[in-house]
Amino acid sequence: NAGVTQTPKFQVLKTGQSMTLQCAQDMNHEYMSWYRQDPGMGLRLIHYSVGAGITDQGEVPNGYNVSRSTTEDFPLRLLSAAPSQTSVYFCASSYALGSGNTIYFGEGSWLTVV
Amino acid sequence: LAKTTQPISMDSYEGQEVNITCSHNNIATNDYITWYQQFPSQGPRFIIQGYKTKVTNEVASLFIPADRKSSTLSLPRVSLSDTAVYYCLVGPRGPGNTPLVFGKGTRLSVIA
User: Fold this and answer.
1) Angle (CA) B34 B36 B39, round 5°
2) CB-based contact (8 Å) between A101 and chain B?
3) In sequence order, what are the residues at sequence separation of 6 or more whose Cβ sits closer than 8 angstroms to the Cβ of residue B103?
């Protein structure tokens, strides 16, 4: 039972480089989302999706792009990495958008931008 | 999405019972109360959910008064391994109107 799988787990980027964080879930969940968490801080929502072909912005979307071509996958793209994007990134999924639905998180991707 | 308020941090000694209260004054009729636990360097994980009165599982208990404007997560006899951040979320099951937004949570530190 894989649940939510994120790759890579660790990545170091140079300022200005681009990269994609991969996220896949095998629970047939409609809702998927990306959060970032800075040291000692709470989770901040970057982008989310309520189904294939549908995405929307969260609290901190600038500098990130997403797409949802399949139910299973929800990649997060950093267009031009900046040191301010150094953070831990979590992908999550749940049955639907409502907060009463259990949300499942991946193990996190640690990103450092130098 | 019902706004929630919970303490920023709490300290406890091992073996004590810890109660973390979450206020959600504008909870809607079809909203559920869900608590998540996040250990350092891990993503949050579901620990308990309730609608009214009391719910208990192997990890915690959740107490919800009749007016449902607050809830209390109770951790019995905590150990060092219970050191984590605890988040309270309020919202409906099934389709909703707003995305899942986590607040800062309550940082519980258990001391030996």
Assistant:
1) 175
2) yes
3) A42, B4, B6, B87, B88
Return the structure tokens found at B2. 């019902």
Q: How far apart are the first and last CA of chain A?
A: 36
Kindly state the helix (H) or strand (E) to which residue B21 belongs, with its residue range: strand B18-23
Asked if A96 reaches chain B (Cβ–Cβ under 8 Å), the answer is yes
At residue A2, the pLDDT reads 75
Q: How far is CA B59 from CA A56, B40, B50, B55, B102, in A?
A: 35, 18, 14, 11, 21
- CB of A61 within 8 Å of a chain B CB? The answer is no
Q: In a mutagenesis test of the B interface, which of A23, A99, A103 is the best target, namely the one with the most B β-carbons within 10 Å?
A: A99
A48 and B99: CB-CB below 8 Å?
A: yes
Give the pLDDT confidence of B67-107 residue by residue, as tens digits: 999 999 999 999 999 999 999 999 988 887 778 888 889 99
For chain B, the distance separating the N- and C-terminal CA atoms, rounded to the nearest angstrom, is 38
